[in-house]
Amino acid sequence: MELSMPPPQIYVEKTLAIIKPDIVDKEEEIQDIILRSGFTIVQRRKLHLSPEHCSNFYVEQYGKMFFPNLTAYMSSGPLVAMILARYNAISYWKELLGPSNSLVAKETHPDSFNGNTFVFAVIVEPIPVGQAAKDYLNLYVTPTLLKGLTELCKQKPADPFVRNLFIHTEEYCL
Questions:
Q1: What distance in Å separates the CA atoms of residue 125 and residue 73, rounded to the nearest whole number?
Q2: Which of 11, 74, 84, 120 could be stapled to 54 by a disulfide with Cβ–Cβ 3.0 to 4.6 Å?
Q3: Which domains does the chain have, with CATH numbers?
Q4: What molecular function terms (GO) are annotated for this protein (predicted)?
Q5: 59-82: per-residue pLDDT in tens?
Q6: Which residues of 63-74 are buried (b: 16+ CB within 10 A; e: fewer)?
Q7: For residues 15 and 21, what is the distance between their CA atoms, to the nearest angstrom?
Q8: What is the edge-to-edge ordering of all strands in the sheet holding 13-19?
């Protein structure tokens, strides 16, 4: 008696990847990382979206303060859209991207796309005002500035302009 077994099934997910206009010149490097991460590029297309196409694509963001900037940015130049496939593609792609906040990504996931400095991620966020601006500065800008100024102080650069800039900045901070 011969047992018949169903043919093995390979579960493959697909996900969309977009190389944004400001880093489209890094397409080859990005594709290399994608392929080395086990993805297959099923389809790839370089295109330039109109603001209307971007509005339709990002319709779930409509009404948010950053929506006009997002659509203007994504229609500002050519981009590359790719369909990627692999086992658990969505979770692996999210892992490869890292946290959406590039400041957090640089600290916690430096090898991710969002944490990698060569990607030059542009942060598209609404410009806060009032208390929201103070909170934003305290949460994101001040720690980064303090870290940079501390590092600058440790290095004591030979360029006197940079050193004087640091001294004047420090006086204002006190």
A1: 12
A2: 74
A3: 13-119 (3.30.70.141), 131-173 (no CATH)
A4: nucleoside diphosphate kinase activity
A5: 888 888 888 988 999 999 999 999
A6: eeeebeebbebb
A7: 19
A8: 13-19, 79-86, 40-47
